[in-house]
Amino acid sequence: MVEPTNPDLPIGKQCKLLSISRSSFYYTPKGETALNLALMRQIDAQFLETPFFGVRQMT
Q1: What are phi and psi of 4, to 5 degrees?
Q2: What average pLDDT does this structure show over 34-48?
Q3: pLDDT confidence bin for 57, thresholds 50/70/90
Q4: What secondary structure letter does DSSP report for 17?
Q5: Across 51-56, average pLDDT
Q6: What does pTM read for this prediction?
Q7: Is the confidence at residue 4, as pLDDT, over 90?
Q8: How many CA atoms lie within 13 A of 53 on its CB side?
Q9: Per mean pLDDT, which range of 1-5, 22-26, 35-39 is the poorest?
Q10: The dihedral of CA 42, 47, 48, 53: what is its sign?
Q11: pLDDT band at 37, cuts 50/70/90?
């Protein structure tokens, strides 16, 4: 969408035309930590064992 190498249209102008902020153009996602992935796997395993549990029982 945004072409950083375009000599005729600066990045700021391209972002404005696309209605996105320049900071979102430069943002790179960091991904999940190993601890968070392990916790999500545990929660998923528990949910697959007991899908009838509600929020109170899952916590």
Answers
A1: -65, -20
A2: 95
A3: confident
A4: H
A5: 88
A6: 0.52
A7: no
A8: 14
A9: 1-5
A10: positive
A11: very high
Can you tell me which residue has the tokens 């929020």? 55
Closest CA to 36 of 44, 48, 28: 44
What are 34's two structure tokens?
Answer: 């190993």
Q: 14, exposed or middle or buried, with CB in 10 Å at 0-12, 13-18, 19+?
A: middle
- Domain ranges for the chain, please list them: 11-58
Cβ atoms of 54 and 44 within 8 Å: the answer is no
Q: For residue 5, what are its two tokens?
A: 């190498």
Distances in Å between the Cα of 15 and the Cα atoms of 19, 29, 41, 56 are 6, 19, 38, 44
Rounded Cα–Cα distance for residues 38 and 33 (Å): 9
Contact yes or no for 32/24 (Cβ under 8 A):
no
